Amino acid sequence: MGYVINRLFQGLMVIAVMAVLVFIGVYAIGNPVDMLISPEADQAEITATIARMGLDKPLWEQFLAFLNGALHGDLGTSFIYNEPAVRLILDRFPATLELALAAVLMAVVVGIPLGVIAGLKPNGIAGRSIMTISILGFSLPTFWVGMMLMMIFAVNLGWLPSTGRGQTGSLFGIEWSFLTGDGLAHLLLPAVNLALFKTSLVIRLARAGTREVISQDYIKFARAKGLSEPRVILVHLMKNMMIPVVTVLGLEFGSVVAFAVVTETVFAWPGIGKLLISSIVHLDRPVIVAYLMLTVMLFVTINFIVDLIYAALDPRVRRKESA
Amino acid sequence: MTTIPATPMIAAAPAEVSVETPAARLVRKFVANRLALGGLIVFVLVALAAILAPLIAPQNPYDLAVLDIMDGSLPPGELSGDGKPFLLGTDEQGRDMLSAILYGLRISIGVGVGSTVIALTIGLALGLFAAYSGGWRDALVMRLVDLQLGFPPILIALILLAILGRGVDKVMIALVALQWAYYARTVRGNALVERRKEYIEAARCLGLPYSRIVFGHLMPNCLPPLIVVATMQVAHAIALEATLSFLGVGVPVTEPSLGMLIANGFDFMMSGRYWVSFFPGVTLLITVVSINLVGDHLRDILNPRLQK
């Protein structure tokens, strides 16, 4: 219990520090009048907004007002859409979540078998080619691969649609693309594109895990016991190798969401990443601030959950922290 | 004291009696891997092409006087109005793509290498400072590192560029801010191990000044793992700069890097004029892959845990 409180406290600290940094970035480094008031506003509007937003007050009072708004889920109103920034982002979040989950699923399904093969035969032809492919996967710029996928499969071959989410189906009151055939066809290319980098990562983790586990005594024992090789690999090896893979993937999920910015821009996928880029281009600062604060909270939540699962699985972590 | 004394390697293999110097052994091991050697050769060629761009490029792609709109959107290999071939085609303004790529490479590699060197210096200084002073100073630097590494690089870069605006200098600032934490952490971890070793103790017993122990003895021995991280980071920085410029938040239109060239060609690609985007992309890919091949192999040969 003490461990849980400790972690929760640390997470809240990170959110508080990020709130201060975002506040300093928007209010102190840049000119808040330029950043928070639409460039099209005239002088009377500017004066009115400065007074309404309290920009003439001392900085610490402004910070308290910003914090107060943030705690009530109010991070300002978008200039472009004239809607609360938080709602804009929450409306688009399911699209990004769906894309990110599809990408992680693909990375696991493709990456783990390849990584195990590379780990079992590190010096064989298959092992070496898989590792070379994974270097390529790390090196290929995501946006360029996305453009090439689009050019080949959407423009030249015409097999798949190039942009958008397609038809969506409704589940729990939220629209999802994976529920319809048309939506799935739209999801395929962006998901492959976003999965590329993480697949390379999974291959490396699975390979390293396999190499480490394969030399353990319990694997030798399982073989000596006369178990068939597929059983040794699929049961004894996989079970032990998956722990680091799952941990890292859990921690990396937030970065998949962040990296979706690139894929969403290429494929015009209507998620939060595309919203962020258009907000930066159009200087829609309240949306940028809201995106940052919500992403920070997402990250802290993910880290918190992974920490808890870790502590539940490994009592040593708990004892070390409370000691 | 400017050369790197490879004490850790000798310490790692005390039984091996060899007349080969550590540096020569490093070179022999590196050359043994053909893929890594190929990567190094390709990268040197790419870097030379970037440095010599004004001398070898067929035209200055940003001198509007030499551009002829009549040469616009020519496919690769086509001849210009006055009979010169455009090896990689032209863009819609009649700009030779080969020249644009060579000039773009200068910006991409310059930003990548430049930001890495600056970040390396800052990270090295802060890492050594944290490891050597310890206590709350160490804790402060390391919490900052943890905070930053907890978030994906692209997110931090987007935050910084949203605040700072576009520009080559601003992209450099963002890339430095992203990278220093990796170096600081690597250096600190290494320095904590190294400072307990006998040669540091010996230097202390000799009464050498603090600065000489840190910069003359401790720092050179922290460098090998840092070189590996730095090599990989140059590739990351180049790829990230391209991504940011593609997203429209990186370098300005007047100083187009490879990422910018790719973004410019995006619309033409859909109408079948693939070369405007394709060749800058291939150039970017070749550059990043060659650096990663070198870095990957360097890591294998410099990692004492993988040495027999």
Write the layout of secondary structure elements.
The complex is a heterodimer of chains A (323) and B (308).
Chain A: H1 2-29, H2 32-36, H3 43-53, H4 59-71, H5 85-120, H6 125-139, H7 142-156, E1 169-171, E2 174-176, H8 181-214, H9 217-224, H10 229-267, H11 272-281, H12 285-313, H13 315-322
Antiparallel strand pairs in A: 1-2
Chain B: H1 7-12, H2 22-32, H3 34-51, H4 53-56, H5 97-133, H6 135-149, H7 153-164, H8 168-194, H9 198-205, H10 210-247, H11 258-269, H12 275-302
Helix pairs in contact in B: 3-5, 3-12, 5-6, 5-8, 5-10, 5-11, 5-12, 6-8, 7-8, 8-10, 9-10, 10-11, 10-12, 11-12
Question: Describe it for me?
Answer:
- The complex is a heterodimer of chains A (323) and B (308).
- By secondary structure, chain A is mainly α.
- Chain A is built from 13 helices and 2 strands; from the N terminus they run αααααααββαααααα.
- Chain A has helices at 2-29, 32-36, 43-53, 59-71, 85-120, 125-139, 142-156, 181-214, 217-224, 229-267, 272-281, 285-313, 315-322, and strands at 169-171, 174-176.
- In chain A, strands 1-2 form a two-stranded antiparallel sheet.
- In chain A, a hairpin with a 2-residue loop joins β1 (169-171) and β2 (174-176).
- The model of chain A has no long low-confidence stretch (mean pLDDT 77).
- Residues 6-15 of chain B have low confidence and may be disordered.
- Chain B has one domain: MetI-like (MetI-like fold, Orthogonal Bundle), CATH 1.10.3720.10.
- Chain B has 12 helices and no strands.
- Chain B starts with 6 loop residues before the first helix and ends in a 6-residue tail after the last helix.
- Chain B has helices at residues 7-12, 22-32, 34-51, 53-56, 97-133, 135-149, 153-164, 168-194, 198-205, 210-247, 258-269, 275-302.
- The interface between A and B is large, with 40 and 37 residues.
